Structure formats: C-alpha cells, structure tokens
Amino acid sequence: MEDTICAIATSSGVGAISIIRISGSDSIYIANKIFKGKDLTKVSTHTINYGHIVENGKIIDEVLVTVMKSPNSFTTEDVVEINCHGGIATTNKVLELLLTNGCRLAEKGEFTKRAYLNNRIDLQEAESVMDLVNANTEIQRKMAINGLVGKVSNLINNLRSYLVEVISNINVNMDYPEYDDVEVITNKVLKPKIKKVKEEIEKILKESENGKIIKNGINIAIIGKPNVGKSSLLNALIEEDKAIVTNIAGTTRDVVEGVTTIKGIPLNIIDTAGIRETADLIEQMGIKKSKEAIDKADLVLFMLNNNEKIDKEIEKLFDSIQEKKYLILVNKSDLETKIDLNKLNLKKDIIIKMSLLNNLGLDNLKEKIIELYDLNELEKQDLIYLTNARSISILKNCLEKIEDVLNGIENEVPIDMLELDIKSIWEDLGLINGTTYEDELLDEMFKRFCLGK
Fold it and tell me: pTM score, two decimals?
C-alpha cells in the first residue's frame, strides 16, 4: 500500500461532473503537478480549491480539487478528489495525466480495502459500503447505513467480548489457582454461558433471513400449464408489457424476468414457460428452465384456469412444489367454473381468485405476499442484520462448534480442552468483522467493488 492509486469514482458517460479519486502518500504532490491554481501542497486539509488541469501549459479542464490530509480521510491516507466536467474524453484525459505523473490505476474496491487495512472500517462496514452503493429502495438504504456505522459489527463484537471473558476466566483458573476472588469455571458453570452464546447466534441467524430478503429481494416463479395467464400476471405486477401475451399455448418459450417492489422489498419475478408434455425441442428447453426456476424460487405462484378441469399434468406439477412456499392463483374467475380444487386438498388461505383480464385479484395477491413475509412488521424493525453469505456461513460454522462444546460439557471433557474449542469459536467470529483475516479472502471480497470505491 505504499504506492499512490487513482480511479474514476463516478459512472462513466455524459454528466454534469466526474470525480477522479487519488489516495496515497504522494496524492497531493501528484495532483499539484497537473493543477494550475493554489499550491495544493500548502492548502489546509478539507478544502476545495478552484483551478485548471493543465498539460504542457495547455488547459485541459476547469476543475474543483478537494484535499483531505491523512489521517482524516476515508482511507486514512492523503486523498485528493478532482471534480471535472462530466464526459468520457475529459475524464479519461485527467486520469491519463495522473497515471503518467506517478499514480497507479486502483484495483476494484482498493480504496475501501485500504480503509479496512488502515483500521478505518471493519469488514462488515466495508461490505455495507457496497450494499449502500447498490441500494435501490429506502429500506435497503437504511439497512446498509446500520452496517456502515457499525451497528451490525457490534452484534459480533459483543459475542467476542463475552467469549473473551469466559476464556480469560478459564485461563486464570488454570494459571493462578490461588486466586480465590475469581469465579471457578467448572463444566456446570460453563454450560449456561455457552448456551447464552448459542441462543444469541441462533437469534442473529434467524433475523438474517430478514436481511437477505431486504438485500436480495424475494425470488418468485410463476408456473402453470400453457395459456393460464402467467405472462399477463408478470406484466401486471411490474406494470410493463415485458412478456408477450397471446391466446396461443406455448407462446413463452424461455423464462422472462421482471422486478417490482412491495413495501420497499424487491420482488424478482420469473415468468416461466408453460409446463406440459411436448415434442417441441425448443419448448422442452424452456420447460427445463422453468423447472430450474422453481428450484431457485423463494415463492411459487401456481396458476390455474378457473374454466379448466384439474388433470394429471396439473396434479404432477402440484406435487413437484410441495417442498416450496407457494400460493394457488385461480385465473379467469369471470368464466364458468369447471375447476375442482378439492382434488388438490388445498388450504383456503393460499387460494387467490383472479381475473387478470378485468384487473381483479392483483391487490389480494400483493397483500398475501406482504402477510407471508411479514413485510409490514419488517419495515418497523431496527434493520440490524447480517446479510452476506460469507458472514452467515461463518456464523453457522460457529454454531456447530458450540454444539460440540455443549456435547463436551455433557461428557465431562476437561475445561482446558473445552477452552481450545471456545477460543476457536472466538477466532472464527473475528473473521466476520475482519479482526482475523486471510489475504485471499480480502482479495476476493473487494473484487466485487467498483473501481473508484
């Protein structure tokens, strides 16, 4: 991290301004070499300075240059941000001048990586930076901010602090048995302490499901036989004519995707090809993709025709979704009723009658999704959740180790042996916030960031 890096921090294309960010010990010196205005090496920190970017005395652009001196910057290094006029040619020219005058092009996420390695933020906060950049809804923004200001990190730090007390107490008992003012940790005393950690981890994992819903949305697959109204439902939900709608069975040959939001939660909706027995090779491929979409779905919307009887194909398709969360949508309810839902032995509270042609039942469907995922309550909560798969996986691994410790307590395993297992849990928890880390993990994680971040 001894070299000075630079990158474009704003989206490429035509805009009012572009920002080129520089970080490193030579940031101010390098920026000053191409800047005509005040001497940047002599200005106060956190100042904005008007001038021009020049090359061989010729003006390249009129700019504002912000100088932030170490350690009071995002990376804790000297940071300079050049605000130039938006546009590809101008922005790239300023970047080119920085590179030819001593900067290196930053890798993806390198600014945030430096902030982490310089102890400006921890890994949870670093990941929240990316969540904030990617936030599309207000509830996603609020959750990302909670991570960015350290509220999520505190969940893990509190667990580690509690385990440190337990580990320290055991060590004192072993190394200084003459101390009689320190609690003696026996298996009986240790058990409720470890159970407390287990309960807290289980609580965090359970609530992380809410976090995943907020961050990633709910994946919804619309399935059914051909010509039941699947494409019409997709179009109605996203309020856009994205899927082709005809009265010809088998029109949809591939999955069609769309996104909408309910209560600030993204609904990632997939309109699948109608599932039926067919000799058409292209249609078969579409049906295969439909079945893959069912496997990945959090919620399946199984559409039926009100004016069609339930046949073997419908029964077979219904059997295939029994391991999933699903709703039954009975479309074309304005037509003569021929369907007998008793054949499927359904609970009434999962059946929604609809007539997409007459715009009936759509609100009932949305309300049911809100109820299924408790979205009204979700937006009232404090939104302090783990959301990334890496952290959740580590926490689940810690839970397995805690079970091993509890089994060891039941089997009267010596305390000094259990202490090693407890310390291993403490170290694993450190991986979540990055108190302990591996270089390979960091490289892989920060690759997900954009260049200027």
Answer: 0.73
